[in-house]
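Incident review: delayed structure delivery

Summary: a single-chain prediction request sat in the queue longer than the usual turnaround. Root cause was a stuck worker, restarted by the on-call engineer. No data loss occurred. The affected request and its eventual output are reproduced below so the record is complete for anyone auditing the incident later.

Affected input:
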Amino acid sequence: STFVVIASSLKISRIAQQAAHQALAYGIASSLLEATEGLPFAELQNRATGTPLGIFPPHGTWEVQTDPNARSASSTLALTGTSTAISGITGALRIPTNAFGDFTAEAALKVPTTAPSGWRAGIIFRALDFEHFYRYSLKSDALLLERVQGATTTELWSQPASLATSTWYRPKIVASGANFTLYLNDTQYAVVSDNTYTSGIIALASGGGTALAAPGAAAAPATP
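Output delivered after worker restart:
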């Protein structure tokens, strides 16, 4: 009798989890439709200069993998399959938070040894959609902060660096108003100012067909 009760409880719990996931999927799909239904058809055809949608759906194939060297025990969130490039993004996943203006965001990222020569990975922030955002990238030969506005990508700051594959790095951004303080592995590298975007979504992202492993990412609003 005890076994039957436990089995029934587990089944009920599983059904509840499935229902919660279905509700979340429905909510995401609904938000995508609501964001686009009020836009003129011409803007849906030309996203480079259209009105920002305010959405940032997943891009590429993500799954949980095991890495004994991960900072979050052995679990990592891995980008295992990339998609067609959008504004230089071939893989992206939104961090499940609200849109932030002032915040601190930090992630641990590792690019595998199989990465192409033009690999890049990092954090996208204050994103309005896939064509309007800031991007703090780690590349094999540089650190880079960019602003993407439709078809135009502007380099706001860069610094030469020698970064390796199969190595864990910790990029961090502290955003306060128009100022962005950029860190890597607890070392501050720059303070960059730009007031184009005041609030938006935070996401992990890669470019150049780069696979990616991320044991965890955290974002929090700035302390008043």
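Verification: The first helix runs from residue 2 to 37.
Action items: add queue-age alerting; document worker restart procedure.
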